[in-house]
Amino acid sequence: MLEFYLMDTLSYHIRPMRDDDIPQVSEIDREAFPAESLFRPYTSYKQEIHNSVAHYLVACTTDKPDQGNWPKDGWFKRISRCLPAMPFRMPTHGGHSREYVIGFAGLWVMLSEAHIIAIAVRHNCRRIGIGEELLISVIGLATRLNANLVTLEVRASNRTAQELYGKYGFYVSGRRSAYYSDNGEDAVLMSTEDIWSPLFQTRFEELKEAHNQRWKAR
Ligand SMILES: CC(C)(COP(=O)(O)OP(=O)(O)OC[C@H]1O[C@@H](n2cnc3c(N)ncnc32)[C@H](O)[C@@H]1OP(=O)(O)O)[C@@H](O)C(=O)NCCC(=O)NCCS
Fold it and tell me: Disulfide: which of 94, 142, 193, 213 matches 114 by Cβ 3.0-4.6 Å?
């Protein structure tokens, strides 16, 4: 498990994806990237999980509404918006603890470059810091794997994602014309500066601390 993150009495954590997460991850993928699904087969997560350059993380919660530990206010009110969308069955697979996956991130690391394949959060769980926590974890992972740069491509129209990446110092490094086959949309290429530079590291630590303070306090 890479990170553990507490919010009031409700917690979620980020850990590497396992085989038994694949149905939930595929569900989030379909919901988050519906246009891609028309033109490409969904990423074969079974293959990805055993691909040595691929690293997938999931954000998941083990809390259950009937455990009496769900706060009445603050974060619970926010996450409770997820509940109607969740058929609230906590999956049990192979004796593993029951966990509900609320987001995932995928990273490919080749030589000194880490490339973000995707970051996605369940629709009704957005805007409560989970996407940012996944990005923090992915950058942390890239650092541990000795990458120097983190890159990605994103739809030109996806301002939400560009805001998230921009917050963490990603700049626009190029554009691929008509990259997306469903609507001919351009891809915007984004990249960090050297993630080992003191400037990047200092800013990254500040952003992590701010995120922790903002969401932990609720
Ligand atoms: C992009 C995505 C992962 C963000 O997840 P999230 O959990 O809602 O994001 P967070 O709550 O952690 O927000 C973090 C930052 O993202 C940006 N952001 C998130 N939602 C935003 C919105 N609706 N409008 C503008 N900026 C937004 C902001 O910079 C925000 O920081 P702030 O709260 O200080 O303003 C989510 O919207 C998603 O799953 N989208 C569909 C999949 C996708 O497009 N993935 C990215 C391409 S790989």
Answer: 142
Four-way CATH pick for 3-216: 3.40.630.30, 3.40.50.150, 3.30.565.10, 3.40.1570.10? 3.40.630.30
pLDDT at 73 over 80: no
Share of the chain above pLDDT 90, in %: 64
pTM of the predicted model as reported, rounded to 2 decimal places: 0.87
The residue whose CA has the least distance to atom 11 of ligand 1 is: 127
**119 CA to middle of ligand 1, Å?**
9
Model confidence at 35, in pLDDT bands (50, 70, 90)? Answer: confident
Q: Could you tell me the strand order of the sheet in which 54-61 lies?
A: 3-7, 10-16, 54-61, 100-110, 113-121, 149-155, 187-191, 171-176
